[in-house]
From TrEMBL:
UniProt xrefs under Pfam families: NosL
Annotated organism of origin: Solitalea agri
Name the UniProt record assigns to this protein: Nitrous oxide reductase accessory protein NosL
Family annotation (SUPFAM superfamilies): NosL/MerB-like (SSF160387)
Superkingdom classification of source: Bacteria
PANTHER family assigned to the protein according to its UniProt record, in alphabetical order: HTH-TYPE TRANSCRIPTIONAL REPRESSOR YCNK
InterPro entries recorded: N2O_reductase_NosL
Amino acid sequence: MRNYLLLLLLLTAACNKKGPQSISYGSDACDMCKMNIMDDKFGAEIVNKNGKVFKFDSAECMVDYVLTGTENLEQFYVTDHSQPKELINVQKAFFLHGENINSPMGGHLAALGTKKEAEKMQQQSGGELLTWEQVKKLRTH
C-alpha cells in the first residue's frame, strides 16, 4: 500500500509540471485559428499560470491570441526553424520577418534559436531581424 501511495504521489507531481509540451504535428489544432498544426519548422505554445498549454501553428497566431487580452499567460515558446520541433523561449529567440518566409498563416515570420542561424537565414531569404517585443508590435499594425 505504501508503494502505491508513493507511486501516486510521483505521478501527480509529474502531471503538474509547468512548461512546454511537444506538438503533435498533423493532429494538434491551433488554439487561435483552429487549423491543424502541420509544419514542424513553425509552431508555438503558451503555458498559463495554471500549467495549461495552448498550441499554435505559427508565432503570428500566438501573438494574435496574446492580443485578445487573455489573462494569466506566463510562458511563451516558438519552434526553432533551424531545428524542427524544438521549442525555445521567445525571449531567447531571434525572429526573421520577410516576404520570402512562407509561414503557415502568411505572417512571413520564422523564429531561430541563435543569432548565427538567424543571420544565415537572413542572407538566404532576406528580411529583417526582430525581437519578441518587435514581433508583437508588428502584429498590431
